[in-house]
Amino acid sequence: MLSSIVLGGALALALAVGYAFGKKTSAKKTEAVKPYAGRYVFCPGCANQLVEKDVEGKLRKTCESCGFVHWNNPLPVAVILIPHRDGGFVFVKRKKNPRAGYFALPGGFVDPFESALAGAIREAKEETGLDIEIDRLLFTSSPPGVNEVLLFFLAKTVYEQPVAGDDAELCVVSSLNSLPGEVAFQTHRQAIIDYMHGIPPRVN
Ligand SMILES: [Zn+2]
């Protein structure tokens, strides 16, 4: 009896593992029809179940009741390089995932109907307590596999000390090489290096 329970458990586990593998395989199939990667199941307009349809040459989730199309456009993210009077830049130690515990430039998603410029100023304030002025746009980046457009802004040099906001474990003023930890994102590291080498604005 006991052995049959154990055996049954093992079978259930094997089935569960097989199911998990099956899910992974189907996820890979979905990747083949990028850029669709949305997780909507129901229409946000009328709550009808969404179905995948070819719309303008790409597989997208659509609502057959009201015509809603989930375009799944990349989200704009404002990231700010803030030089500090003491030398170096303002970094935040991330409190939340992705990359919790790593250091990053301040930044975040642009709010609805907000300009990227206003978003940069707001995010800097929220994460570091600093009132910044934007000097210029450094460059944009769309990292592979990430459905975001990163807009890197350069702030004018600040004189006040940053104070960590809710999303940050702490704020530090540091050069790239003296950071007491790793940089969370390669794009942030590259932005700093490009700026320090005087590389002109670029889009990629
Ligand atoms: Zn609908």
Q: What does the model show?
A:
With 204 residues, the chain is an alpha+beta fold. The chain has two domains: 2-70, no CATH class; 75-203, Nucleoside Triphosphate Pyrophosphohydrolase. It has three helices and eleven strands; from the N terminus they run αβββββββαβββαβ. The strands form three sheets. Strands 7-4-9-8-11 form a five-stranded mixed sheet. Strands 1-2-3 form a three-stranded antiparallel sheet, with no helix packed on it. Strands 6-5-10 form a three-stranded antiparallel sheet, with no helix packed on it. Strand 8 (134-141) and strand 9 form a beta hairpin. The protein is elongated, with a radius of gyration of 22 Å. Residues 1-37 have low confidence and may be disordered. Residues 43, 45-46, 48, 63, 65-66, 68 line the site of zinc ion (ZN). The site of zinc ion (ZN) has 8 residues, from loops.
Q: How is the quaternary structure best described?
A: single chain
The residue ranges in which pLDDT falls below 50 over 5 or more consecutive positions are 1-37
What is the count of structural domains?
A: 2
Q: Strand sequence of the main sheet, in spatial order?
A: 7-4-9-8-11
Number of helices: 3
The name of the CATH superfamily of the largest domain reads Nucleoside Triphosphate Pyrophosphohydrolase
CATH architecture of the largest domain: Alpha-Beta Complex
What's the SSE pattern? HEEEEEEEHEEEHE
Total strands: the figure is: 11
CATH class of the largest domain: Alpha Beta
What is the helix fraction of residues, given as a range? 25-40%
